[in-house]
Amino acid sequence: MVTHSEIESGEALFELGIAYEDGHRHVVKDTEFAIQLYEKSAAQGFAEACYHLGCMYAFESDPQWTPIDLDLAKRWYRAGAEQGSVNATFAIVEMIEYEELTDDEDGAMARWLVNTVEQGYRRAVEEIAWRYRDGVGLPKDIAKSYLWTRVEQIMSRERGANPGLDELRKALTEQQINDTEKQAIDWIENHKGYDPSQNFGHPRPDTDFGALGSDEAVKVTKNYKGC
Predict the structure, then answer these.
(1) Nearest 5°: phi and psi at 66?
(2) Per-residue pLDDT tens over the stretch 25-59
(3) Closest of 97, 103, 95 to residue 136, by C-alpha
(4) DSSP class per residue in 39-77
(5) Could you give the CA distance from residue 146 to residue 22 in angstroms, rounded to a whole number?
(6) pTM of the prediction?
(7) Within a domain: residue 214?
(8) What's the whole-number mean pLDDT along residues 174-199?
(9) What pLDDT is stored for residue 162 in this prediction?
(10) Which of 103, 107, 142, 182 is least crowded, fewest Cβ atoms below 10 Å from its Cβ?
């Protein structure tokens, strides 16, 4: 039995929003109410709700309620990235990578990507490395590109020659290489519990709304209309 208190959690509100957006699990499709639930979930710090709202405005999931609005999509993606959503991080990075960014935005993008690395998302290591190498979305910085390429190499237990690292070394002094090698080893030492094989997708809350009957679904959600 799903209780009112369970519905109040950010995760549960997000899951319920999906039910109303899709019109399944014993509820009638109601996009406007779904958006209200997602916004309430996002306000409680559930990052994937921010990401989902961003997608709704980026791809016009419902022209009546969520017409394409890239500025609004960007704001929701950014909010999700700030709250630690891997999905939102890559969405906002891809949206703004070729824009003229301020120093604060450069720093924010680097912080978001590092945060996804520390959550166990290996793709972010490769993203940081090439973006620093080519100056796309981040200021060009060969030393930082070398650092993250080296971290990725250590994590993957790669042995033998690495042409990418060899090219980066040519642009660095011996002191820079030594300093960066130490930084890479320190990073790995500080993240011994890191699982580079971990994959990410959309988290699914434990609340089982599929077990609700139609009357119960209405009962536990009626107080949220207009939330």
Answers:
(1) -135, 70
(2) 678 888 889 999 999 999 999 999 999 999 988 88
(3) 97
(4) HHHHHTT-HHHHHHHHHHHHHTSBTTTB---HHHHHHHH
(5) 45
(6) 0.64
(7) no
(8) 78
(9) 77
(10) 103
